[in-house]
Amino acid sequence: MNSRQLKSDLALLAITVIWGSTFVTVKKAIESIPVFNFLAIRFFIAFIALVAIFHKSALKVDKRTLLYSLATGTSLFLAYAFQTLGLMYTSASKSGFITGLSVIMVPVFEALLLKQKIKKLTACGTVMAFIGLGLLSMDINSLKNMSFNAGDVYTFICAFFFTAQILLISAFNGHTSSIPFAIYQIGTVALLSTITSFAWEKPSIPTSAFTWEALLITGLLATAIAYAVQTHVQKYTTATHTALIFTAEPIFSAIFAYFLAGETLTFQNSIGAMLILAGMLLSEF
User: Rounded CA gap, 76 and 32, in Å?
Assistant: First the structure.
């Protein structure tokens, strides 16, 4: 592995830390504001911030970049939409596990569509991370009584669209500038979230200081910076590496939930976390 890929992987890991740290905040915020209402404001904050910083790149965007952004942003929006829909009918633990199927789907589709050869260590690391994800998010004692419902199907579709978003970034990155690509990808999610919110919800402007704090944190850190960094650094690493690194998000979510919300981390969860980390390290080597 070259130093550029290592730096890219570390940047992606930093993104997962940000996403994991905001989980508790988002969970509390959407108790006072509809989900797509929250997503619309969050992504518009990110879009406006990036346009303000990179206005020259944003204004010089070409039609091809806009089309790439529309396709990738739509995939990201649909992933959020189906994940939200799935959570209405299934548990958060099952949702986290099924969403994590993307770590298996990405290398398969990357090999088939992008003609990327999967290395043996990466394949082993991916399987280890997937098993770890199951131990981290599921209760083994409840597996005997597990049943599948519509929510699980919706969540599986969500995993497919998260997979598509990662693959589309890898496929398009070499043909466009990463900054406008990221900006209009985020803008697409903001627009589609707004349309969905007006269609299904009763959108409103938040009045709570905590909700605005959550929107600013997630909008600037977990969206503007996170997706701009992801779009840029995926030029120097593979889609499989990206998906594998993103499986660490539940680890950081659990760690921050432990310190901020007093949630517990069981022995099974700890084993799962160690397997995810071991899978990531194996893939790096």
Answer: 24
Please give the angle made by the CA atoms of 243, 20 and 132, to the nearest 5 degrees: 55
pLDDT of residue 94: 73
Angle subtended by helix axes 150-172 and 92-99, to nearest 10: 30
One-letter amino acid for residue 91 of the chain = S
Q: Which residues of the chain have pLDDT under 70?
A: 1, 91-93, 137-148, 261-263, 284-285
Q: How many domains does the chain have?
A: 1
- Alpha helices, DSSP H only, in the chain? 3-29, 35-53, 55-59, 63-87, 92-99, 102-113, 120-137, 150-172, 178-200, 209-219, 226-233, 239-246, 249-261, 267-284
Domain membership of residue 156 as a residue range: 3-284
